[in-house]
Design a protein that fits this description.
The protein is α+β, with helices and mostly antiparallel strands. It contains 4 helices and 6 strands, in the order βββααβββαα. The chain has one domain: 2-Layer Sandwich (NE0471 N-terminal domain-like), CATH 3.30.2020.30. A hairpin with a 4-residue loop joins β1 and β2.
């Protein structure tokens, strides 16, 4: 996932829509996506969200109203958003943005299933995690 495949589509324009909380991305292959910031935040590629291996993902909740403070370019292959909740450690490569845009419906379905499995609601506040929140509550 790190580098771009040769010939992979690259963004020709990226627009942040603050009101609708979406990132609009047009790619060089003609694909055009409106990616909800909530989806980007939930699927942030950072270790904080993805964990450090399969099954280590930290389920993100309460992100429906998340906004973007800024969007910084990373080289010419990625962007690093700073979200309104302070999360800024995710580096979104062009191919990852394309994946999020193209697979939105499936990703939302997966997210809904994960929420249900965890018994939490989409708008529940995140548990106040001290460190990585690997503690077990009985």
């Amino acid at each position: 996932m790190a580098g771009l495949q040769r010939g992979a589509p690259t963004p020709v324009s990226i627009t942040v829509h603050g009101q609708s909380r979406q990132l609009e991305v047009s790619f060089s292959d003609g694909a055009h996506f409106h990616i909800p910031l909530e989806l980007m935040r939930i699927y942030s590629p950072s270790a904080e969200v993805q964990g450090h291996g399969p099954g280590q993902e930290v389920l993100q909740t309460g992100k429906r109203m998340v906004g973007l403070e800024s969007l910084a370019p990373v080289g010419n292959y990625a962007v690093q958003p700073t979200f309104s909740d302070g999360h800024d450690s995710g580096i979104f490569s062009w191919d990852y943005l394309y994946f999020l845009g193209a697979q939105q419906e499936q990703l939302w379905a997966d997210y809904a299933a994960r929420l249900e499995a965890a018994g939490v609601g989409r708008d529940d506040p995140m548990p106040e995690a001290g460190g990585h929140g690997c503690g077990h509550h009985h």
